[in-house]
Amino acid sequence: MRAIAITAAFWGAAFFSGSALAQELPPERAAFRAIYEELVEIDSSPTTGSCTRAAEAMLAHLRGAGFSEADAQVIVPEGAPGDGNLVAQIRGASRQRALLLLAHIDVVDARREDWERDPFTLYEENGYFYGRGAADDKAMAAVFVDMFVRMRRENYRPHRTIRLALTCGEETSNRVNGVEYLLNNHRNWLQADFAINEGAGGVLSPTGAPVALNVQAGEKIHQVMTLTVTNPGGHSSRPVPENAIYRLSNGLNRLAAYQFPVELNDVTRAFFERMAPITDGEMGAAMAAIARDPHDAQAAATLARDPSFNAMMRTTCVATQFDAGHAPNALPQRATATLSCRVLQGHTPEEVQAELRRALGDEQIEIAIVRRRDGSSPPRLTREIMGPVERAAAQLWPGTPIVPTMTVGATDGRFLNNAGIPTYGMSGMFSAPGETNAHGLNEKLRVQSLYEGRDFLNAIVRAYAR
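Now predict its structure.
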C-alpha cells in the first residue's frame, strides 16, 4: 500500500457516488435500513427526547422475531422514566460463556435551527446518511438489533450466549448511565467473557481508500480537577499585590507550558509501530522512533504537534472553566478553574493531583479531585480476539492493516473494564478522520461504511459465538 501522509490535508472527506436508495436494496438490507432509520428518527437526546421510547421501539422488533420477555426486555431506572435500556440474549449451548454486544442509544442535543436538515430525520444524500446519532452510536445499535432479529429467524444456536445491551446515559452526566446501573442492579444481563463496543472504526484516505482498520483496547479516564485560590479580598479602590485571580492565572500559565511525561503501553506502542509504515515524512519517522524508544524527545515533540497523537502519548489536563470574584467593585476572595484531565490507565487521580502540584509550584493553589474515578488496565489483544477480526478484514478490505488504538476520550467500556469484563471497540465502519462530526452539526456516516460495518460485525460475532 502506498504510504499516506497523515497531515492536516488528510482529514478531508471523499464522497462515494451512486449510493443505493432504500427501495433499491435487497430485502434483508432494506429491513436493516428501516431499523436504522427508525432508531435515528427517535429523539433520545437529554433535553427533548427519551431513551425509553427508543428502547421500546427496538424491543418491538425483537418481539416480532420471537424473543420472549425472559430473553428481551426494557429496564427503566427508578425515578428516570426516560432513561430506559434494552437488554436481550440468545442463549448458547454453554451456560458459562457469553459475549456482550454494547451500544448506547442516547445522543447529545441537536437544535433544528442550527442544522442544514432536521437532525431527527434520516437523510441519505451523496453517499452519506445524515442525522443525530447516525454515527454515534445508533449505527452499531441498529446493526446489533438487526443481527438479533436475523439470528432468531434463522433459529441460530451459538455455543456462547450472546447478550445485547442498548443503554442510555453515555453522552451526558445528567442521566442515569445504563451500563453503571445495570452492573449495580441487573448484572446478569451484562456478565460476559468480553464485550464489543464503540470506540474504533476504520481510517480512509482522502480518495476513500481504506488505510487502517482500528481495534480499540483501553481508554483514558476522564477526571475533573479544580484549582482554587482564596484570600481576604477587599475594596477594589485599594488594590494589593496579592490577588486571587492573578495568582491562579499565573499558575495556569505554568500549567499551559507543562507536559506530562510520555508513556506508551502495548496498545499505543503497537499503534505507532503499525501506523509508521503507512505515514509519510517526518510524522511517520517520529512514529517509528517513539515506538522504538518512548524517551525519544525529538520524536515526541514532532508527534505532539497533532493533538490526537499527543493525547495518546501522555496524560493531559486542560483548563475548561474559570470562575472568580463576587462583585465588580471588590477584590476577588476566590478564583477557581476547572481542569478536564484525561488520565492514562495505570495512574490514580492522586498521582495526577501530585503532578499538578509540582507543575503549578504554588502551595496556595488548592487542587481538588471532583468525583474520583479509577481506571483499569487495557484489555489484552489475544488471538481469540484478533483472529476473527483478521479473517473478516481480509475478506472485506484485503491488505488493510489492523492497527490497535487507545481511545483518548471515554466510552461506557470504562465501567465494564473496571468490572472485570474486557471491552473492545470495533465497528468496521470507516471514515476520514473527523468527517462524521459526531456531537456536532450535520452528523453523518458513509452509506457504504454502514453496510460494510454490518457485514464485519456479523462475521466477528458469529465467529466469537461458535
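The longest helix spans residues 447-465.
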